[in-house]
Design a protein that fits this description.
The complex is a heterodimer of chains A (about 240) and B (about 400). Chain A is an alpha+beta fold and about 240 residues long. Chain A is about 35% helix and about 25% strand. Chain A contains eight helices and eight strands, in the order βααβαααβαββαβαββ. In chain A, strands 3-2-4-5-1-6-8-7 form an eight-stranded mixed sheet, with helices on both faces. In chain A, helix 3 (about 70-80) packs antiparallel against helix 4 (about 85-90). The radius of gyration of chain A is 17 Å and the shape is globular. In chain B, the strands form three sheets. Chain B has a ten-stranded mixed sheet, with helices on both faces. In chain B, strands 2-6 form a two-stranded parallel ribbon. Chain B has eleven helices and 14 strands. Chain B starts with 8 loop residues before the first strand and ends in a 5-residue tail after the last strand. In chain B, about 30% of the residues lie in helices and about 20% in strands. Classes of the chains: A alpha+beta (about 240), B alpha/beta (about 400). At the A-B interface, helix 3, helix 4, helix 5, strand 3 and helix 6 of A face helix 3, helix 4, helix 5, strand 4 and helix 6 of B.
Chain lengths: ~240, ~400
């Protein structure tokens, strides 16, 4: 898919960043994934001059497991006591993470949540590009967040964390005096994307497009040429940089 | 914000709900005041769905997928599409996906009754994207695809994205829709929020008792090239967010007002051009008030008739936007608007023009509005095939 989008900031957060936010009053009712996404977005926004998000900013969040821990807590309590608790239900919705993030940052443009175990990052970037091209917003946060469920994971449970990119229509970024780190020209899936990974309980964040692009940007500062995003099962996508 | 000019035609539609196994049955239920709600819930009978273990596929299919196959099949048939090509898109919306295939095993695991190995065998389907993959396999689809899971606004967002894919030339045609199956998580969860009614919902009524959860699927076949028998045009769409509360809408409908206004602008129309509003209208007090405020704010003195059909088919969460968009397409085709069943004593705080009777008149443009948890607001403008923006 041809995009020509500016990446103006990137950020990531780890389990340790999430723990640091745990006792903050704003995060009293938040799940770990909500804290992870906010940690990644705070890290990305720290690189930018302050600007109001409002209706010009969108958000597309990707998570394969979603808020599975909240779902498990809800189902466990209900199975054991027959009592349905509202907070775990509210937090168990797959889009509760993006709802929390939109409230915290005042994102009032389009907010959407996508899901795919292996190609969710690509879907999120492509959805953001569609929204920007359709003038639903001028800039869009794309974020992938993942953690294996503590009750199901074993010692090899994959990377826990979140990575965020702030994408923007190029002229808008210039008007807002935002730095353009790099231009994403195209993102294409080279192989058919099967969902099954053979690792049903593990986080697959390390294979995620948003995570890999954010890591590469942090390491190199800017990107040119092509970046291959390798995944389990010989699946690959390729990002092209202007 | 700017606009795209390529028309997006609706060439086919399909739906399965508790109020009918196809569009014709659903439309007649809505027209003749027949509800599929029993005891406060809208359940799709299993005997009208394909077998869980479909020959040649070899894997069990959840109810949501089976309903999706019925509705997608009807949409493709009415559009006269034999199959999906590699330059066709597929966008699916759902909030719980195939939860019926793994939740019981998870509860068994949590209770120590199911081994991790046994759980692993079904847990590959936990990811909502797994349902999209199974739908793609069943339809032999190899083109661009996506799964949207934005609560009750999911399938409206999916239609907006599908239309944008066509306008932007990413795909030639796009099959887009939503599917939702009832499960313990949503039923007990909504009960915990004290939102459910055991009676039929009564949207916009001052004696409302709450909402009716239901299941079902709705699909639309969209294309950039004018079909031989066009049903409607997707002429505008917009998505905005309240950024206010996790489950409650903004009390003055801030996000809904923004989405509705932006969708009308996106279609290059004015509020006075809208012939009918198909509202989200769940029958929860906060939803009704918020949506009413938003509609009054947009339409001021020129309020078109407003209808909610939730009394007929209930609230199918992520699938609701697609199911109700299918009804809107039927309304355009038949030049007939539906009434809000169950509305006897309108809530006087909601100052809108309730559609209290079925009516026939020239319908050019319909606004389909949806709200969802997480502050989601998504609106579509559907236009009569012979009008166009």
């Amino acid at each position: 898919m041809i995009m020509n989008l500016a990446i103006v900031a990137c950020g990531s957060a780890s389990e340790r960043d999430s723990e640091a936010l745990r006792l903050h009053p704003e995060f009293r009712k938040a799940t770990m994934k909500m804290r992870l996404v906010c940690g990644a977005l705070d890290s990305a926004l720290s690189l930018l001059p302050k600007f109001v998000m409002g209706e010009e900013m969108g958000l597309v969040l990707n998570s394969g497991f979603g808020e599975l821990d909240a779902t498990m807590e809800f189902l466990r309590t209900f199975a054991e006591t027959g009592i349905a608790r509202p907070l775990p239900f509210q937090n168990s919705l797959h889009n509760s993470t993006s709802g929390f993030v939109s409230i915290r940052y005042g994102i009032r443009g389009p907010v959407s949540t996508v899901n795919h175990r292996l190609f969710g990052g690509e879907q999120a970037i492509q959805a953001a590009a569609t929204l920007i091209a359709d003038r639903q917003c001028y800039s869009c946060v794309v974020v992938s967040v993942e953690s294996a469920s503590p009750a199901l994971a074993d010692e090899n449970s994959g990377v826990v964390g979140a990575s965020a990119l702030i994408l923007a229509e190029r002229n808008w970024a210039t008007e807002k005096s935002l730095p353009v780190l790099t231009l994403l020209k195209e993102l294409r899936c080279v192989s058919a994307p099967p969902n099954a990974s053979g690792r049903p309980f593990e986080s697959l964040l390390e294979f995620d497009a948003i995570h890999q692009i954010a890591c590469a940007l942090r390491k190199k500062g800017s990107l040119t040429g092509e970046q291959r995003i390798e995944k389990p099962g010989s699946c690959t996508s390729v990002a092209s940089w202007a | 914000m700017g606009f795209e000019s390529t028309k997006v035609w609706v060439s086919g539609t399909g739906a399965i709900t508790c109020a009918g196994n196809d569009i014709q049955a659903l439309w007649l239920s809505a027209l003749e005041d027949r509800s599929g709600i029993v005891g406060g819930l809208g359940v799709v009978k299993d005997d009208c769905l394909p077998e869980p273990n479909h020959a040649g596929v070899g894997t069990a299919r959840g109810k949501a997928l089976r309903m999706a196959l019925v509705a997608a099949g009807e949409a493709m048939r009415t559009a006269a599409w034999d199959r999906l090509e590699s330059d066709d898109g597929l966008i699916l919306a759902t909030t719980t996906g195939q939860i019926d295939l793994w939740a019981a095993a998870l509860i068994g695991f949590l209770r120590g009754q199911t081994s991790k190995h046994a759980l692993a065998e079904v847990f590959e389907r936990q990811s909502l994207g797994a349902m999209l993959d199974e739908l793609r396999r069943a339809l032999a689809h190899s083109g661009p695809s996506s799964l949207v899971t934005s609560a009750c606004g999911a399938s409206t967002q999916a239609i907006a994205l599908g239309a944008a894919w066509i306008r932007q030339g990413r795909v030639r045609r796009c099959l887009v829709g939503g599917a939702e199956a009832l499960c313990a998580l949503t039923i007990e969860g909504f009960k915990s929020l004290q939102l459910l009614s055991t009676e039929n919902s009564r949207p916009f009524d001052c004696d409302r008792r709450g909402i009716n959860l239901s299941e079902g699927a709705g699909f639309l076949a969209l294309q950039g090239e004018r079909p031989a028998k066009p049903l409607a045009i997707v002429s505008g769409a917009a998505m905005r967010t309240d950024a206010f509360h996790m489950t409650g809408p903004h009390p003055e409908g801030r996000g809904a007002f923004a989405a509705i206004s932006a969708s009308i602008q996106h279609a290059r129309l004015k509020p006075a051009d809208i012939s009918w509003v198909h509202a989200h209208g769940t029958g929860s007090e906060l939803n009704d008030l918020s949506e009413g405020f938003a509609l009054r704010g947009v339409f001021t003195k020129n309020m078109p008739p407003v209808t909610s059909t939730k009394w007929v088919h209930g609230h199918a969460l992520g699938a609701s936007g697609a199911i109700e968009s299918v009804l809107c397409v039927e309304a355009l085709r038949r030049q007939t608007i539906l009434k809000t069943c169950g509305l006897n004593k309108p809530d006087t705080r909601i100052d809108i023009n309730h559609a209290l009777a079925v009516a026939r008149f020239p319908i050019r443009h319909i606004l389909k509005n949806t709200l969802g948890f997480g502050g989601i607001n998504a609106s579509l403008i559907l236009t009569h095939a012979e009008v166009g923006p």
